Amino acid sequence: MTDISTDRRALWAGRVLSGLTILFFAMDAGGKLIAPATMIAYSPPLGIPADIGFYRLLGGILLVCTLLYAWPRTAFLGAVLATAYLGGAVASNLRVGSPVFSNTLFGVYLGVMLWGGLWLRDARLRALLPIAA
Fold this sequence. Notes:
Shape: elongated
Helix content: over 70%
Oligomer: single chain
Number of strands: 0
Number of helices: 7
Largest sheet: none
Number of domains: 1
Distance between the termini: 11 Å
């Protein structure tokens, strides 16, 4: 049995992790939607098309995933979709030989924050995935 102070701390830690993840995703999506030419110019050569429309499409997909994650009723779906998006980013960086710990695994770090935040703030997910005994 957990006490109420532990639940409150977990909830707030989850909110902070989720908030940081949402903030990062929103900034990334906004950059791709608002200034795709700048994003293209400063993106490493990952083998994806240097097309403004393509970057806007990526930004739109990430924005939808972020909004779903931010809304509590659809947070689980948003987390699943954002994880798929991050998997594509990891695969793209791995394919071109980007530095492993800084670039390639950055999507993994975000994924851990994404799921960790959701796990801490959602008791149903903690019941489904009981990590600590």
